[in-house]
Write a structure and sequence with these properties.
- It is a single chain.
- By secondary structure, this protein is mainly alpha-helical.
- The chain has a domain at about 5-50: Rubrerythrin, domain 2 (Single Sheet), CATH 2.20.28.
- The protein is about 50% helix and about 5% strand.
- The chain is built from 18 helices and six strands.
- The strands form two sheets. Strands 1-2-3 form a three-stranded antiparallel β-sheet. Strands 4-5-6 form a three-stranded antiparallel β-sheet.
- Helix 14 packs parallel to helix 17 (about 360-375).
- It starts with a strand and ends in a 27-residue tail after the last helix.
């Protein structure tokens, strides 16, 4: 016998079914609430509302757990690679050797973008923010690859998804190079995914670029840890755009748009900017004092997490990776990194931080790591979007094959003027 939730409005009683997932909290199905009661629910920020069914990622913030298709994210970060995670998220299972060979070769051999995209880039001003370029160029892919925009065709969906996994790193590197005024570097299919991206970002035609294996490994882990994070602002935006029947390139571009905000994708950039503001180890006590003062608007960025209340499984992996990169560069004169190391030490030992559960989170460590590797803060969100593309695509595909999918239609509590009479301008 199924369990129901009872709702009483005035003298009338209503029953709504309770649905259970494989793990996690159950949901009260209120999809027929308006039809039966003439009422909507009101839930700003959707903090208590499930917008869809999904089998991709599960998070338990209190326990500090995140699973991709049932696999612990931190285990995957240690033992797998980003392209394998892309396969897992898209297909639902880890690949066999034959499947892996076909998939990885397909991605490797489609990293180049249409040559006319070079001309498209010339329309942006030099110095344009790389994220602005990404928002535009990802959406523009539909103009260059119109043969894979039919969302009703499973084969075209597959092709468009693979194109984005393969080509968005190329676009991201082009956006970076364009912002610097440097020539584009074509992809090298002999390199793996992260190595290729590093070369496209940092190589120049005048000299041979040497791949730093530590950096490539670190970047791959960052991509894995950012590949998906259940339903959030950017993922929900992709789903909402896609629910209208928008083509896949346009839908994924909305993810980049939503990610371009300090409350979502810009958190690691905000953490690094905070370190720059502190500036020197000697200034840390002053800023710690400001952070503890309830009347001071200053906030320590990169500490604690609104989802992971006690422990962020990504942070532990990222901490180790961060230290590996810092040891690799061995730059003890970098004041920014000195501040970061000292602040980390304080956060892990200070009673105030421990009590408030303000532990260094993934944004703190990833910001430091990317900075140490040579990426400017303007590229942080771009890299986040590059990684999250595989998660967005998985959610997009899930929607496309779900027969219960409807166009998104959030409702509102209207508080504007009641109907009133219009007066012509001469009579006002």
């Amino acid at each position: 016998m199924s369990e129901n939730a009872k709702l009483k409005i005035g003298s009338k009683d209503f029953d709504f079914p309770i649905k259970k997932g494989s793990v996690g909290p159950s949901v009260i199905d209120v999809s027929k609430l308006y039809a039966e009661t003439n009422h909507f629910t009101f839930d700003p920020g959707f903090t208590s509302t499930g917008s869809c069914e999904s089998s991709i990622t599960y998070i338990d913030g209190d326990k500090g757990q995140c699973y991709y298709r049932g696999y612990p994210m931190d285990t995957l970060a240690e033992k797998s690679n980003f392209l394998e995670i892309a396969y897992l998220l898209w297909y639902g299972e880890l690949p066999t050797k034959i499947e892996w060979g076909e998939f990885s070769d397909a991605i490797k051999n489609h990293t180049m973008v249409h040559e006319q995209i070079r001309v498209f880039f010339n329309g942006f001003r030099r110095g344009a923010h790389p994220m602005a370029i990404m928002v535009a160029s990802v959406a523009a892919l539909s103009a260059f690859y119109p043969d894979s925009i039919n969302i009703k065709d499973p084969e075209q969906r597959r092709i468009s998804a693979r194109r984005m996994v393969a080509k968005i790193p190329t676009l991201a590197a082009m956006a970076y190079k364009y912002s610097l005024g440097q020539p584009f570097i074509y992809p090298d299919n002999s390199l793996d995914y992260s190595e290729n991206f590093l070369q496209m970002c940092f190589a120049v035609p005048a000299e041979k670029y040497r791949i730093n294996k530590v950096f490539a490994k670190a970047l791959d882990k960052i991509f894995i840890l950012h590949a998906d994070h259940e339903q959030n602002a950017s993922t929900s935006t992709v789903r909402l755009a896609a629910s209208s029947g928008a083509n896949p390139f346009a839908s994924i571009s909305t993810g980049f748009t939503s990610l371009w905000g300090p409350l979502h994708g810009g958190a690691n950039e905000a953490a690094l900017n905070m370190l720059k503001e502190i500036g020197d180890i000697k200034n840390i006590p002053e800023y710690i004092k400001k952070a503890k003062d309830k009347n001071d608007p200053f906030k320590l960025m990169g500490f604690g997490h609104r989802v992971y209340k006690n422990y962020d499984p990504r942070a532990k992996v990222m901490q180790k990776t961060c230290h590996e990169v810092l040891n690799e560069i061995g730059n003890t004169d970098n004041k920014l990194l000195q501040v970061a190391k000292e602040l980390e030490k304080i956060a892990l030992n200070d009673e105030y931080f421990i009590e408030k559960k303000l532990y260094p989170n993934i944004d703190f460590y990833s910001g430091i790591t990317l900075s140490a590797m040579g990426f400017p803060t303007t590229m942080f969100t771009v890299l986040f979007g590059l990684a999250r593309t595989v998660g967005w695509l998985a959610h997009w595909k899930e929607m496309m094959i779900d027969k219960k999918t409807k166009i998104g239609r959030p409702r509102q509590l209207y508080t504007g003027p009641s109907p009133r009479e219009f007066k012509e301008l001469s009579k006002r």
